[in-house]
Amino acid sequence: MAQLGKGIKILLVDDEPNIIQFLELGLLNEGFQVASATDGPEALHIAESFLPHVVILDIMMPGMDGFEVCRAMKDARPVAVIMLTAKEEVEDRVRGLTLGADDYMSKPFSFGELLARIHARIRNQFPQLMEKVSIGPFSIDAGNKELSYEDRILDLSPTEFELLKHLVLNHRQVLSKSAILDQVWGYDFGGEENIVEVYIRSLRDKLNDRERRIIRTMRGVGYRVDIR
């Protein structure tokens, strides 16, 4: 089981019980500490003692809406806010981001995408919480730039480390070559996408993944790490 969420607190705020239940079960399974609220005042009260790192916050709630809650949360303490809405209106997105929201998702959404966005917020705003992470057979020590598979430290170049770390942290997602280039090599990388294939081949060799069961090629889409 992944231990990526260990020690990380997430507060869910939504007036739809089925959404709360769905997210709570998934996040608890990932190892996060989870609290929930069905309205704004309750969320602010819980946050005072729970001290969440990430708040998943619905915009459309009766009474105190998500915009007001976001402003109050941001004024009180450092916290990452991911806002949810059933709308896709640009005005809502702009207003939320102006009030300090860190990310924005429209309903319906996949749990895997939300999880990836939570990981991104933690990496950016609370990197100390991700210094050492265990996910299935993988262990990542970001401070020492070490990555282990089945208790064996892999001999990786700096780029190989960053690539495998990115694949493992996003193991629920199929990652395209272009997305990998942006996140690992950087947006200003001027080389060819085929460089990703070269590094994937090298990682498979170091993982003894001859049958490609660890790093899967999803034809026409990209790559995904399988965690068993």
TrEMBL record:
Start-end of DNA-binding region: 130-227
UniProt keyword annotations, A-Z: DNA-binding, Phosphoprotein, Transcription, Transcription regulation, Two-component regulatory system
Entry superkingdom: Bacteria
InterPro entries: CheY-like_superfamily, OmpR/PhoB-type_DNA-bd, Sig_transdc_resp-reg_receiver, WalR-like, WH-like_DNA-bd_sf
Keyword Acyltransferase: no
SMART domains listed in its UniProt record: REC, Trans_reg_C
Domain annotation OmpR/PhoB-type: ranges: 130-227
Residues that bear 4-aspartylphosphate: D58
Alphabetical list of Pfam families matching this protein: Response_reg, Trans_reg_C
SUPFAM superfamilies named among the record's database cross-references: CheY-like
UniProt domain Response regulatory: residue ranges: 9-122
Protein name (record): Response regulator transcription factor
Record organism: Cohnella boryungensis
